[in-house]
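Aggregate trends can hide what the representation actually does to any particular protein. This step matters because it turns folding into a mapping between discrete strings. For completeness, the protein is quoted in full, as a sequence line and a line of structure tokens:
=====
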Amino acid sequence: MDKNAAEAAEATTHARLDDGVLELAMSYPRRRNALAPALREAMMAHLEAALGNPEIRAIVLTGEGGHFCAGGDIAGMQGITGMGGRARLHWGHRMIRLLAEGEKPVIAAVEGHAAGAGISVAAACDIVVASRAAVFTCSFNRVGLVPDLGLAWTLQRRMGLGRAKRVMLVGAPMGAEEAASLGLVDQLAEPGQALAAARVLARQIAARAPLSNALAKTLLNRSTGTLAESLAAEADFQGLLYTTEDFQEGRDAFLGKREPRFEGR
């Protein structure tokens, strides 16, 4: 078995769908879930399918074997050319766009290490739940590279320009408590409980109106423009939602003092 075939047999992403929540687990245990090509391809296939599946209301992304993701597969970068490296990044950008721009809310459940591109993947998710024992490392400058997979955009939006510069330029490991104080982590959990906490949060999201959540995520992603642009998008989205069955259900449930049952229509 050649190297590529061996990697494809070992590196993958496992999927589990339960009650409207899709759990995706990065799995490459020998390399702490490094983003090998086979793992990324499997993840992108699951994400693309999920975005077109109305039964899926939320996504939880985690890693197997006690770690989230050790980053890029450095061992696979031997002999890479300039144009080859550029193509490699464009390929990885597909994955980040699915996480950050896809209409399904994505929650990262982080245990162990999230390093290099692993911190980029976590930061691209909508909500980051981390074990208090988790460690985040922006380690690109340790191997002579620039932070990639969208981290310059996502990290700055999470913690502000000055803090993002400090994290990127120093490159020191951060415990989960520090990452939470900076804005990278949104919710802390006890060691070993990040996935359980993310599941609770995902089910809360899945119980809400999916069309509302989809457009709210899109509205927030567009918030880098002017106030006028944000208000115009808000008016367009709200006008559209007024016509949906979910709004009628939500209004009737509110007036009837009962829990709504949203169908995504």
Remarks:
- The first strand starts at residue 12 and ends at 18.
- The longest helix spans residues 82-101.
